[in-house]
Structure formats: C-alpha cells, structure tokens
Request: fold
Amino acid sequence: MARGRKSRPRTPALTLRTALTTALLSVICMLAFAPAASARVTVVPGSVQGGGTETLAVRLSNEQSDLATTRLELTFPTDVVIPSVEVTPMGKWVVTVAMRPVDPPVTVDGEEVDEAVASILWTGGEVAPKQFEQFLVTAGPFPAEGGRLLLAAAQGYEDGTVDRWTAPAQPGWPGAPTVDVAPRAGVAEEPRPTENGEAPVASGSAAAPSAAGEERPAGGTDVLPWILLAAGVLVAGVGGAIGFGQEGQRKRAARRRRTVRAAVRTWPLEKVRAETPAEFPAETRTEESATGAGRR
Reply:
C-alpha cells in the first residue's frame, strides 16, 4: 500500500513577508512625501546684537548624491537696511555683492545711508555631493531697534536645477536662514519706516511677499510626517493581522488534510477485516492453504 506523503509544518514565512512588505511601503511613502530633515543653507550665529557689525558663517551643505553645488545666492529683505557687507575669499568661489538704492535715504548710527545690501552671490566654486562649504560674511550695522533678518537662499546645481528657500523654517520643514536681531540697550523696539514711508511688514510674517514666486508651505506641514508615520504603522498592523489570519486558516486546512489522509490510509484494511466471515473455520483455511502449496 502506498504510503501517504508527510505533511511538513509550515512556518509563518508569508505572514512575515506580508508585514515586512507593508512596513517597507510605509517607509517609502514617508520618505517620498516627508520634507527634508534640515535646511541646506544655514547661518550662525542665529542671533546678533542690534546697532553693531557682526560676522556670520554661512554654511552651504550639498545633500545630493550625484550633483555638485555650483552656486549660492542670499537675498536680503527690503524692510531691513544693511549699509555694508564684506565677504572673506574662499577658494575658487567668486563673490558678487549687489546693492540697492534707499530712497528716501535713512539715518543709521547718525549717518545718512542711501544704499543697502541687496544680495550676495557665490559662483565659480563647487561643493561635492554630501559635502559642505562655509563662507564668512561681515555685515552691519544691524538695526538698533532689533527685528529679524531673513535671507532668501537659492542653491544651484551643476545640471541647472535650483533649490529655493524664501520663508522661515517650520518644524519638520526647511526654510530660509534667519538671524534674530536683539534691540540695542536703551532703544525701544518700534516699527521703522521703509523707503516709501509705510510701516514695514515683519520679515517672515504671513503677509511678507516671497521671492521668486515661491509660496510659504501651507499650515499644518509640521504634522504631516507624523500623519504619514501613523498611517504607515496602521497599514503595517492591518497587513500583519491579515497575514496572521491567513496563516491560521492554512494551519486549520493542513490539519483537515492530515485527518483525511490518515482516514484514507486505514480505511481499506479495516474494511477487509470487517468483511471477512467470522464463521469461516480456521482449520479449513489451513487445509486449503496446504493443498494449494502441494499443487504448486
């Protein structure tokens, strides 16, 4: 009689694959839609004293894996008058400082100022992928009454693409580098008139115009990564629960198959024994067996 094939116990490999697949898809979704962890252009220190000249370190980080950074431009806000700036030479980088007219002129530290720094442009150098460069900028004097200096940043790559940051950073979302200016001692923080005589809009406020037509990220972006994370965990949990349920069904089906196979193996022998006549004498069976053996 053919012997039935043994049924090997199945491991929950499919369940593990299902859970891992759903978790991997969740991570991919978070990486695809979540914002960058940090800004690529930063300025230190993040706060300075009003009324004086300060040296700032501008750090340019290249987070790309296959493109070199070849250009950096910082644009100064029009509601803050910085009369002068000096940039320390750095390697092959060529620095261009653009000034803008201030009309009507304003008085800064007792001197009449009719032009202010508009932008600083670095070209001609290169920051390799996953590397950074640091530039030293001495600017001033900063407003004695304090405020915020928001520097719109544009980072260009060798293929011609440009990343721009024109709004303040938000939690979980990169932004333009900012410098907080503390009021000089004895000077009250009051709104200063701009060149057109109107009250200025605070840099980085919701009403402040953005450069290059880029809009500030919509509200609630700081919770977007957490929403994606929760969704990923939920999807992974549902996938794992479905996988465990399917594994339980397979185990039950395997038990049923083993029961059926065992019944099929034992059924013919039990049937023959049940159909053998009990009244057939054992002696007769022995004689016939011996007669048959003699004939052979």
The chain is about 30% helix and 30% strand. The domain at 37-186 is CATH 2.60.40.2230 (Immunoglobulin-like).
